[in-house]
Specification:
Distance between the termini: 63 Å
CATH architecture of one domain: Alpha/alpha barrel
CATH class of one domain: Mainly Alpha
Largest sheet: 3 strands, antiparallel
Number of strands: 12
Length: about 400
């Protein structure tokens, strides 16, 4: 081999080595860039989540006494209304925020103390105290009044919040778990239909009531039921989980849209939508202000039945240009305006589903993350805060 040929080969090798180095460098730079972008997005989302929680707390959590606070659901500071549903959501959000260092144990305990002060009593003379919460308290002038009977959705969220808090603040774990145990036992004692194996809508819908077989679809929260079973070892929670998911599949299968009603009549083998004005409004049998929560309630469960119902809902809403406030079960809009309480649970569900991207749903209401929470709509603001804090970083 001649000297010139050797030099040419060495030069060629050097060029190839340089090109290879350039490609490796480019790949490394690209990886660093992608990681940086993801870090910025995750960091930015954490900022959004914290901001939404703090904004929600500032506008909706109200101190009643030094040791008690409640969630004002009335949107009117002069005439506040506390609901067990709102108190459950407040405890839930505070436990989630506490896990991230945005809330203190005393924030949770003030909300908890209010719940404990407003528990329901049953019996002919209402002398048997329970760990269920009275569903509504309101203030007129300087006087507070409380309305008897419970609402199952509030009790479920209070119980699960205690479950979370026992991990977030382990020094209070035994206290929180003791209350959770009593509350879940009372849910089974007073809010469970042993014939249909489903939860009733409240302790007032007992076997003597014409509403004993009534199901509120947003009470189907399978990951809660699973957690209660693992904590209490009471197999009825698994029975409830399976029965209520089966009834949700029945309702989803009734229409090509997959839309489910606010309320349904159930048996041990089937479910059917109620007629309007059966319970609360003319939309009782539609996908309305209760059923709008269903995507959020089911999305955290890995059960195939829950995922089937959620994905069918997401397919329907993927096809809508905008998401409006309510639909008939066949897919017709009930209103022309938008509401975050309908959009936020779907964004949450899409963010947790590997088959979807939440950007598709979010594009139908792009301001959901960038605009401040509603200051005059407790329901919109609360469901949005829950969706953003628990869904967007999954």
């Amino acid at each position: 081999m001649g000297e010139n040929e050797t030099i040419q080969r060495l030069e060629g090798y050097s060029v190839m080595k340089h090109v290879r180095f350039m490609w490796i460098s480019a790949v490394v730079v690209a990886i660093i860039y992608i990681v940086a972008l993801l870090s910025v997005r995750v960091g930015s989302m954490a900022n959004v989540q914290q901001s939404q929680y703090e904004h929600w707390k500032e506008h909706y959590v109200v101190p009643k006494t030094k040791n008690q606070s409640f969630v004002n659901t009335s949107n009117d500071p002069n005439n506040p209304v506390a609901l067990s549903e709102g108190q459950g959501y407040g405890l839930y959000l505070t436990a989630v925020a506490g896990a991230r260092g945005w809330a203190e144990q005393q924030d949770f305990d003030r909300l908890l103390n209010y719940y404990l002060e407003n528990r329901d009593a049953v019996g002919e003379r209402h002398t048997t105290e329970t760990y269920l919460m009275q569903w509504r308290q309101y203030k007129r002038g300087q006087t507070w009044s409380s309305e008897r009977n419970s609402a199952t959705d509030g009790d479920l969220y209070i119980a699960f919040s205690l479950h979370q808090a026992s991990t977030v603040w382990p020094q209070r774990s035994s206290y929180y778990r003791a209350i959770e145990r009593r509350l879940t036992a009372d849910i089974l004692r007073y809010e469970y239909n042993s014939t249909t194996h489903t939860l009733t809508v409240g302790n007032w819908a007992n076997e003597k009531s014409p509403y004993y077989n009534l199901l509120r679809t947003s009470d189907v929260i399978p990951n809660f039921f699973q957690a209660f079973y693992e904590f209490t070892h009471d197999s009825r929670w698994l029975t409830i989980k399976h029965a209520m998911l089966d009834r949700m599949v029945d309702l989803s299968d009734d229409h090509d849209t997959g839309l489910v009603p606010d309320f349904a009549w159930v048996t041990s083998t089937n479910a059917s939508a109620v007629q309007g004005k059966t319970v609360a409004t003319r939309y009782d049998g539609d996908y309305s202000s209760n059923a709008c929560r269903v995507p959020m309630m089911l999305a955290a469960s890995n059960d195939p039945r829950a995922q089937k119902v959620v994905r069918k809902l997401l397919r329907f809403f993927d096809q809508q240009e905008v998401i409006t406030a309510g639909y008939s079960l066949t897919g017709h809009q009930l209103n022309t305006y938008q509401s975050d309480s309908f959009t936020a649970p779907l964004v949450y569900a899409a963010s947790r589903d590997s088959h979807h991207t939440y950007d598709r749903i979010l594009a139908k209401k792009p301001g959901l993350l960038t605009e401040a929470l509603h200051e005059s709509s407790y329901y919109d603001a609360t469901l949005t805060a829950m969706a953003v804090m628990e869904g967007m970083d999954k």
